[in-house]
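This section describes the prediction task in plain terms. A model, or a person checking by hand, is given the sequence of a single protein chain and must write out its three-dimensional structure as a string of tokens. No templates, partner chains or ligands are provided. The sample shown here is typical of the held-out split.
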Amino acid sequence: MPKKTNRTKECERDINRTLAYSSVFKCPLTKYQLYNFLISNQVYNPKYFETNLNRLVKDKIIKENKGRYYLFRSKTVNWDKRYKISKNKIYKSKDVFKSLSKIPWIRMLAVTGSVSNYSASSNNDIDLFIITKNNRLWLTRFFVVLILKIYKKYRLDSKNDLCPNLYLTESEMTWPNEDRNIYIAHSIITMQPIINKDSTYFRFLTKNFWIFDYFKHFSLSTNENDFIKDLKLKHTKNHLFDLIETIFSAAQRIYMKSKITSEIISRHFVHFNKNDHSQKILYKYKKVLSNRKIS
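The expected answer:
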């Protein structure tokens, strides 16, 4: 048996790392998902990747079942069932998304979390990430909540709640250095944009190229990037709406003051992270790596 090269070891390690992360959610991955969401700081030729993947299966380090891969002796959910549940949740919310798209200050609305990963159970909410025009975050939030309440889809109203738990303005699309980690990077690359005006989704990604430190295989269209560089957005001032924004911001923040626990609230950034499981997930991931002796 030929001796493994350093690159072969690195490829096998990256495959194991990726499946270790997915094992935290008990989600097996297709070959396409495994390659495109590979946790790696380098790019492997697809054929080379597949050769190493097949070797790991043969050596019983990972297992393949019906075209889906997971670490050997790890528990998995019924991915087909979870996929159908997730797709159905998005489909049932299409009328709500259509109404939300009418809010003029929304530049991007994306589904995140378990639904965007197509791994949701029937009790999971639909997490929403919203980017707004500058100086329109609180106006936007008011109308988002209003529309969701009209549809009885806001938080605890149904099993298919829509939870808008993260808002950014266009001027604050770069993720803070101190909050960058594999959990956030994975959330970004797996988000599903529903509303995307002025290529805001692509502009957001180009503002966060640090995600490639974790996911080198995740790719953007070069042509789209070239377009983004030349895109000049017009930001016209409207003093009346600026005043209304200030009033809505003050009113909502006063209302929420007694309810705030771990939420992060500012003029350009709102994160309702009361049920933030990121640190718990990162801990479990590190534990799997340690138990499996994956470097």
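For orientation: The beta strands are 29-30, 62-65, 68-71, 106-112, 126-132, 162-169, 192-196, 264-265, 269-271.
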